[in-house]
Fold this protein.
Amino acid sequence: MALAKDDRVRTIGEGGRRVWLYPLRVVGRFVKARTAVAWALFALLLIAPWIDVAGHPAMLFDIPGRRFYFWGLTFFPTDAWWLLFGVGIFIFSIFFFTAVFGRLWCGWACPQTVLMESIIRPIEELIEGPPSARKRLDQAPWSAGKVARKGLKLTAFLIVAGAFSTTLVAYFIGRDGVLMAQAFPSTHPAGTSFFVVLTGILFFDFAWFREQTCVVVCPYGRFQSVLLDPDSLAIAYDAGRGEPRGKAKAEGTGDCVDCRKCVVVCPTGIDIRDGIQMECINCTACIDACDSIMDKLGRPRGLIRYTSERILAGQPRRILRPRVVLYGVALVLLVVGFSTAVALRAPVEVNLARLPGAPYVQLPDGRIQNMMQLRISNRAGAVRHFKVALEGPEGTDVSSPVADMAVAPGAVQHFPVLVVRPADGVRETRFRLRVVDDAGVDLGVTGTFLAPLTEGG
Ligand code: SF4
Ligand code: SF4
């Protein structure tokens, strides 16, 4: 990756002073496309915890209940393998997509960019006006008008932060949980704290921290130098076509007229003509800005465009490189492995455990009774009704005080099971039960019957 002429962070001035940027908002084909993608992603993000699929929220990380609902699938702690697959798919997706598409994620899907560019900056412009008006307002002494504008803007940011926090918290404590946490903090202090802290972080980000999240905090930008290569897609300035810069009518100049529109629209304050830089979040604003200038001049678009360093150097782009093949194969294997494991996993899982307390009791008729607990996890999308029966050995009686062992979809239920055997003096007897339901499930589960030792036992 080419280095910029200087690696100064534009938002940090002398002595660590915050340098405030006033990027001009530009509208062009890329910004329009990105805005459409942003709203589709917002819709997906915002509805998932609020709608039901197969009787549960479409997405819920129910940590106290130790289960995860994902668009109709239910994962229990015993499905921990999905976490390994999930982490693997996440890591190799980053490797693969960055190697091929560069920082497409940053510009098109990262919540920070999407929120800032599609909601926060438009609100700011609506209330405080274009960059020149915003700069004048910031430099003006405090007045009633300035307080009103700033107050209105910050209130709007707080509402957006609160709305997004509500949904993000709902991913973990459910929609009822988050609404209870907001309405009655004493009923859910952890949920209320989570909501307040998250709202505070988002508000701080919207109101002050902004692009510094990308250029100072986000680790992804720092990984670029290892993940990108000269064939990765990047937004870059075509210096071969643009240089030397000069007035439109000047002789012997390139296509760049040095209007600096690509610089004034940049939300991280960089000049893309200095080369591909770590601060570039691939927001595409400079492409649209420069295309609008080229349109006015009657010159071809694309002086700044999606390209690669190799193409800019006049060489053919190589899509298939060793790293792309390696990451791609690993990603496909992980996705296939995950899909196969999900498709083949049993819809019902049963476990048998001994109830705490006395391991056995002697009944009035002299037989020995063990009290067990049957745990049934129903991963299916419908209620299931189970029965338990003995498989062996003979002479064992099995029953449950619960006549209808009904388990809701995505739920885990525990049922008491009484196992009775004659007092034959044998300390431990292995037995096996069958758990069947009305939809074809027939599962075996093994337990150990404990009895007191008697003489000769
Ligand atoms: S917008 Fe285009 S023409 Fe204007 S300075 Fe940037 S690269 Fe040059
Ligand atoms: S250089 Fe262009 S794509 Fe990169 S952050 Fe600035 S405006 Fe966005």
Notes: Residues 237, 242, 256-262, 273, 289-290, 293, 303-304 surround iron/sulfur cluster (ligand 1) (CB under 6 Å). The two ends are 78 Å apart (CA to CA). The domain at 348-450 is CATH 2.60.40.10 (Immunoglobulin-like).
